[in-house]
Amino acid sequence: MIAALLKVTDLTVVHDGDGGERTLLDAVSLDLAPGEVLGLVGESGSGKSLLCRSLVRLLPSSRLRISGGSITLSGRELTTAPEAEMLAVRGGEIGMIFQNPSSHLDPVMRIGDQITEGIRFHQRLDAKAARAAAVDILAQVGFPDPARQYDSYPHEFSGGMRQRAMIGAALSSNPRILIADEPTTALDVTIQAQILRLLMDIRARRGLSVILVTHDLGIVAQVCDRIAVMWQGRLVEIGEKRGLLAAPAHAYTRSLIASHPSLPEEDMPAKAEKLRTPGAVPVVDIEKLHVRFATGGLFRRGAVDAVNGVTLRVMPGETVGIVGESGSGKSTLARAVLGLTPVSSGTIRFDGTDIASGRAVLGMLRRQTAMVFQDPYNALNPHLTVGKMLAEVLRVQGKIETAQIPARCGELLDLVGLGRAFLDRKPRSMSGGQCQRAGIARALAVDPKLIIADECVAALDVTIQAQIVELFRELVERMSLTLIFIAHDLAIVRNLCQRVVVMHRGVIVEEGRSEEVFSRPKHAYTAALIAAVPHIDPDKPLLAPSKMATPQAYGVAN
Amino acid sequence: MHRYKFVLYRPLQFLPVLFGISVITFILVRLIPGDPARVLLGTRATPEAIARVRAQYGLDEPMLAQYFYFLRNLADGEMGRSILYKIDVLKLIATRIEPTLTLVLCSVVLSVLIAVPVAAIAARNQGRLADQVIRIVSTFGIGFPPFWLGLMLIILFSVELAILPVSGYGNTLSEKLAHLVLPSLTVSLSLSTVLARSLRAAMVEGLKSDVATAARARGMPESIVFWRHVLPNSLVPTVNLLAVNIGWLLGGTVVVETVFALPGMGQLLVRAIFSRDYMVVQGVAMVFACATVLINFLADIVTVALDPRVKL
Q1: Does A530 map to a domain?
Q2: What sequence ranges are listed for the domain ABC transporter (chain A) (predicted)?
């Protein structure tokens, strides 16, 4: 065994609150060898990010403090090192990248300057040499035209390129350890695969040690050497990845593995398919739909086809998944169906009625459809209790007597598994999963024929995701709901939906029964999407770089 | 450079704005009760004399015709003749514009010079003594009316210490600047508190932002984190606040110029209103309106320069 580069022993971090001390990190011990990739998994609030911040002593609040234990970097104690020494450690020896490149890059500073900054400070190079070094780093992290792109601002790049820029900034001072905190969570699967590959590439080239924080067991299974599992501020399990995945010791690790929505190889038992009465009226009947957005300014007008000729039919009781990367038009399609986005051409029929035929139809549409949103917190009014929120919907709908509203609110909460105790709660005091359940209860309050869920589990922890998906499955079966489920997570769609529609650049490239599409994709784009999903089995690696073309490479047949 | 393209076509939008302003000032001025001819000739004027003066200035014509003359004059670059001063309004304004312009400019520069360091000290010591002291002082700054502040400054610096002139304006540059110190200080003491508060709030946010965290994680010392990342990001919202306040400041010069007896546009406006000197009131209002439009235009340019994401 090589001597550990970083050694953490009994690290304890406490929060000094009004109600006394609260322990947030409880005697965490781990070590990191040179060149090793350690995966750190656990759900939000388990202390993963706090642990990373503690390693470089950048605690997110002044009320937090390291109360015990030690962190040694090559034998040097960091918990008691003077602040000036920590400046050299941060960036110079331990680099960090974060989940959201958009908010962590300075929006008013050129990309290149953000990389140069670290080089100039840590390596004391002059402006010209630093710029040359930064251009070199931009090239290393995959910028095709680094000399020119040096002068661009973050907003001019896509999410994937921004993450590359942030990796570049972290690498600028030649650190020996890179802490990557959920580096791909905000990215599409294909981009995620590219970024992970880049990280592994850099690690191989520079002999970097990596601590990779993620909630996705598929990612750790694919790229890490060892896995550490955190739960409620404690490190409950750490070990070599194959052994740990095959024989998890801790109950939480087991539930984490169980709720991972991997894509199974073998055909799953066919989902109970509703008998389709011939001649039944489709709930949603979309024909040759185009949604065009104007772009550009006063003088140069352009248009972009967000939805470009989509024809789709959803029968009553069906659960249809729409998958695709960001920008593929799936959300625009959903908004068009609900009459929230003006349609450029084509028709949308809801229950046989063209929704473009007047305001009355739109009113009818709003009474019979509901939407569940991605961000469960922001989709709820923070000033209303759950009970008041549901009562408001019921009152506006006017489908039931005023006197029965309280009883109905209770029923709705029972239905989504929250229980009546939540009637008086406000979103602030609820977890993400609980908020999303309340959001689903609100959608159900309309007593809708159709629910459209737009990325409604993307912001939730894996174990919570599994619960919400299960809730949808139950509701669909029990209430003969029609569900359009939009997600970028293929595994979840496969688990939940009977039929799947794959969208790419505003066009449906493939559709069919979930089992068929996922096990035998016909379109190259679908195949690339599936291949990019990190499998929880370490022996089923992501496609080799040569085979892993960018999705832009696939022409889309109309 | 296409982000700056609006600099070319935005002035086209000024035309309808200025037209609207001309209609409003024209009507508002004539809604002030009183008759310029009567004010000019005094209470014992004969009706014939009044009618003669009215005819002389075109005041006997219908409103629409008067407005038409006003517009035609504007197109010729004229704003009519002052009834009180008996000279061309534009010439009159030209003699008065310098003190006002310099006062506004000095006040704005001084306000920014005060606001930025004060906000920086407060934000970087959030919740500590320095922050509390600044908060209390700035609350007083907002609370005290400018004319009172001005009088107190006169008592302190001019009467007690006798190091600065009490009021008026000078002839040489150094004289003029000496006379502008106290008025500018008066204005900027209130303006800088408003700016500093907004700036402090933005900086406190900025210090907690992901951008700052990322910079710290790259090993940047607090000074770089603050001056290179937090400050530039905090300036953007404050520029617009400053622009709004400069517009307000133009109106405020009326008070300050009166307190310090500065022969500027504010003073001219007050006198013109009291003597129903329609042409002058119109002219000054138009100049103030144009200045406000222009300042907002400049603020837009500064915003675009500060924030690469902004497209106008």
Answers
A1: yes
A2: 6-257, 281-530
